[in-house]
Q: What sequence folds into this?
C-alpha cells in the first residue's frame, strides 16, 4: 500500500514539475510549440500512452488547431474535427472516448465555461488505458487549462504589441520625413521656376545656386533621418529590450569616433510604451550624432535616471560648447529632439556648464505612470 501511495505521489510531483517548467518557459520564450511539446511528452510518459496531442480552438468555427504533440507521428490519429470539438464543449467534467478509436480519450481544457483547448491521448490498445493514473491525471487537467489560458493571453498581447509597434513606425516615418519632403518639394518648385525664367529673380531673392545648395542639404538630412529610423526600428524590432537597444546605440557611436561614451541606465524595461521607447532612442541617437559630428569632445556621459514617476535623460559632453557658429550647424538636430520631447509630453533644456561642453536634459513622465 505504501509503495502504491509513493508511486502516486511521484506521478503527481512529475506532472506538477512539468507544468511549472512549461509555464516558466512560456513566460520567457517567444515560442509555444517547444514547451507544450515537452509537456505532452511528459503526459504521455506518465500515462504510458503512445501519443498526446494538444489542440487550440479554431477561429469562427474552423477546425481546431494542433499546437503540440508528443509521440511518434505515425501513431497519431487524424485531425480533430469540429464534431469532436462540439462534443467536448458539451462535456462538463472528466473525459470522453474519441470517436476515431477506442484506444483514444479526449480531455477538455476549460476556462470557466469556455472550451479553450483539448488533449487527445492514445494508447497502444484500449486495454492498456490505465485506471488510477487516469483519474489522477483528470484532476490535474485544470493545471494544463490554466497554461493554455496563459498561452492565449500571451498571443493576444504579442499581437497587440505588434500592432502598436507598426502604428508607431508609421507615425515616425510620417512625422520625421513629411516636413523634409514638403520642404524639398517647395525648393524644387523654386529652382524650376528660377531656371525656366532666369530673367525674373526668385521671390525670396535667392539665386539658383543657393536653392540647389538647400536642396542638397535637406536631402542629405532626410536621408540621414531615414537611416537613423531604420536603425532604431532594427534595434527595437528584433526582440531586444530597450536597455539593450540603448547599449547597442552607444556602442555603435563609440566605434564611429574616438569619444569615450559612458552610459548609466537606471530605467526599467517595462515602463515605456513602444512609441516612447522609439522617441527616447531617437533622441539619444540624435544627441550622440551631434556630439560626434560637432562637439570635438573626447568624453560624453549618457544617464537615464528617475525620481518617482519622473524620468530624466541627461546627455553631457566636454566639447567646445554651442557658440553661435556651431549652434547653426546643430540647430536642426536640436529642433528634432525638442519635437520628440514634446511627443513624450516632456520638456527639454539645453545648458552650457561653466566647465565647458554642452548638456541636454529631457524630463517626462511615462504615460503608464500618469495618474
A:
Amino acid at each position: 500500500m505504501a509503495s502504491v501511495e509513493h508511486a502516486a505521489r511521484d506521478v503527481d510531483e512529475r506532472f506538477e514539475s512539468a507544468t511549472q517548467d512549461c509555464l516558466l518557459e512560456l513566460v520567457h520564450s517567444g515560442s509555444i510549440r517547444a514547451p507544450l511539446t515537452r509537456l505532452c511528452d511528459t503526459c504521455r510518459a506518465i500515462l504510458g500512452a503512445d501519443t498526446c496531442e494538444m489542440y487550440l480552438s479554431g477561429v469562427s468555427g474552423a477546425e481546431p488547431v494542433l499546437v503540440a504533440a508528443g509521440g511518434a507521428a505515425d501513431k497519431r490519429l487524424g485531425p480533430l474535427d469540429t464534431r469532436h470539438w462540439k462534443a467536448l464543449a458539451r462535456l462538463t467534467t472528466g473525459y470522453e472516448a474519441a470517436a476515431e478509436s477506442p484506444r483514444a480519450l479526449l480531455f477538455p481544457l476549460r476556462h470557466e465555461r469556455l472550451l479553450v483547448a483539448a488533449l487527445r491521448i492514445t494508447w497502444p490498445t484500449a486495454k492498456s488505458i490505465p485506471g488510477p493514473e487516469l483519474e489522477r491525471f483528470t484532476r490535474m487537467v485544470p493545471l494544463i487549462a490554466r497554461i493554455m489560458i496563459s498561452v492565449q493571453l500571451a498571443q493576444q498581447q504579442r499581437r497587440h504589441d505588434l500592432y502598436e509597434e507598426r502604428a508607431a513606425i508609421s507615425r515616425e516615418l510620417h512625422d520625421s520625413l513629411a516636413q523634409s519632403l514638403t520642404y524639398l518639394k517647395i525648393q524644387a518648385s523654386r529652382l524650376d521656376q528660377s531656371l525656366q525664367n532666369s530673367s525674373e529673380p526668385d521671390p525670396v531673392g535667392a539665386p539658383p545656386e543657393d536653392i540647389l545648395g538647400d536642396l542638397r542639404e535637406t536631402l542629405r538630412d532626410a536621408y540621414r533621418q531615414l537611416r537613423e529610423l531604420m536603425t532604431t526600428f532594427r534595434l527595437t524590432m528584433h526582440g531586444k529590450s530597450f536597455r539593450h537597444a540603448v547599449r547597442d546605440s552607444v556602442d555603435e557611436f563609440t566605434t564611429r569616433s574616438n569619444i569615450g561614451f559612458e552610459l548609466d541606465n537606471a530605467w526599467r524595461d517595462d515602463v515605456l510604451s513602444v512609441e516612447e521607447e522609439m522617441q527616447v532612442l531617437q533622441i539619444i541617437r540624435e544627441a550622440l550624432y551631434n556630439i560626434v559630428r560637432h562637439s570635438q569632445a573626447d568624453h560624453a556621459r549618457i544617464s537615464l535616471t528617475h525620481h518617482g514617476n519622473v524620468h530624466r535623460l541627461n546627455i553631457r559632453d566636454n566639447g567646445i560648447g554651442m557658440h553661435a557658429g556651431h549652434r547653426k550647424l546643430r540647430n536642426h538636430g536640436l529642433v528634432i529632439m525638442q519635437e520628440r520631447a514634446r511627443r513624450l509630453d516632456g520638456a527639454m533644456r539645453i545648458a552650457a556648464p561653466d566647465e565647458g561642453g554642452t548638456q541636454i536634459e529631457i524630463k517626462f513622465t511615462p504615460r503608464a505612470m500618469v495618474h
